[in-house]
Amino acid sequence: MKVNSVNEGLLIVISGPSGVGKGTVCSRLRQKMPELTYSISATTRAPREGEMDGVSYFFKTVPEFKKMIEEDQLIEWAQYVGNYYGTPRRFVENTLASGQDIVLEIEVQGAMQVKEKFPQGVFIFLVPPSFEELRQRIINRGTETEALLNKRLEAASDELNQIKNYNYVVINDEVDKACECIRAIVMAEHCRTDRLKLSDQNS
Amino acid sequence: MKVNSVNEGLLIVISGPSGVGKGTVCSRLRQKMPELTYSISATTRAPREGEMDGVSYFFKTVPEFKKMIEEDQLIEWAQYVGNYYGTPRRFVENTLASGQDIVLEIEVQGAMQVKEKFPQGVFIFLVPPSFEELRQRIINRGTETEALLNKRLEAASDELNQIKNYNYVVINDEVDKACECIRAIVMAEHCRTDRLKLSDQNS
C-alpha cells in the first residue's frame, strides 16, 4: 500500500463581504506564500499607470470580454461600476492540472459561481472581528450619504449570511494572523484523506 | 451577526500502524505544542522507575481497571502483552468542556472505539513514507522470527487499510515535518465553518 498526494492542485477561493480587507490579506499572502499561484482577472476597465497586461489583469475590450462569456471561457464574472471583471478558466485549469495550488480573490457572488463548477475547491470566508468593525471600515472608506451607507451595510449583512456555503471562516483581525490561518488551511487540506489517492501496492 | 468559535475543545486522535513512530511524534509535539492537553492513559502494568501516577499513566490494579470498564469510565481500552491500557473518559470530557484541545495517542483499534463515541473528533493517521520503510522499522526493532515478522507486517497492512476512517493522513518522514502538519490541521480545524457557532446579533 502506498499513499500518494493527489496530483491536482488545490483551488483556493478567498472571499468575504466588501470592506473586510480581501485585497490587503491577498497582497500579504503573495509575499508570505510565493509558492502559490494567484489567478489573474480579466477586465474591461482601462489599465492604470504601471499596470501590465497579464500581470495585474488581462485587459480586454468589451466585445472581447462578451465573447469570453459566450464561449464559457470564464469561471465567474460580474459587472462593477460599469466594467466587467471575470476569472479566465484556462489559466486556472492549467495551473491545477500542473499540480499547483491557485488562489482566487473574488466577491461573494463570484465565489458561489465558482463553487458550482469546482465543488472540490477550498472556500475561505474572511470576516471582520464584528459587524460594528465592518461598519466602521465602510464609513472610513469615504463620505457617503446615509442612504447609501445603509444600502452597503445591508449588502454586507446579506453577504455575511453566505458563510454557510464556505468551508472555512478566517477572522481578519490582524492581517498576519489571517495569513497564518490561510497557510494552515492549505497545509491541512493537502493532508485530507479524501484528497489522497491510495493504491494497494505493497511497496 | 457575530462569529464565535465553538466553546468546546477539539478531540485530536493521533494513530497509525505499529512501528510508524506515534510515540516519537507525540513526544516532539508536546515540546512544540505545549498549549494542547495530552490525555493520560490508565494501565495495569507496574510503574517503571521515574514514572509517576497521574503524569506518565494512571496506575491501576486489575480489579480497579475492570471496574472502570464496567462503569463505562473508559473511552477505549485494550489488552497488550498481558496488561490493560485505556483512556479515562472524565479527563477527556473535562478538558473538552473547558474549551481546551486534547490529544490522544492510541492504537488503530482504540481509535475506532473513540470514533464511535466522538464522531466530531479530528482523526489523524500517521503513515510511513512507504510499506518497505515500515518493514525496515519493524525489523530494526529487534530480532524476530520470520513467522512473527510476517504476522506483524500483516497486522500493519490491515491497520493501513483503516486509513479511510480518518480525516487526515500525515506522512511521518521527518518528525518535525509531521508535527508541522499536525499544527496546521489543528489550526485549520478551528476555522472550519461547521465548528463555528453563528449568532444573528448585528453587533
Automatic annotation (TrEMBL), chains A, B:
Residue span, Guanylate kinase-like domain: 9-187
Keywords from the named record: ATP-binding, Cytoplasm, Kinase, Nucleotide-binding, Transferase
UniProt GO MF annotations: ATP binding; GMP kinase activity
EC numbers: 2.7.4.8
Location(s), subcellular: Cytoplasm
Catalytic activity: GMP + ATP = GDP + ADP
Residues bound to ATP: 16-23
Protein name: Guanylate kinase
Gene name of the record: gmk
Keyword Cell wall biogenesis/degradation: no
Role according to the record: Essential for recycling GMP and indirectly, cGMP.
Lineage of the organism: Bacteria, Bacillati, Bacillota, Bacilli, Bacillales
Entry similarity comment: Belongs to the guanylate kinase family.
Primary location recorded for the protein, binned into one broad class: cytoplasm
Pfam families noted in UniProt: Guanylate_kin
Organism: Thermoactinomyces mirandus
A GO-annotated cellular component: cytosol
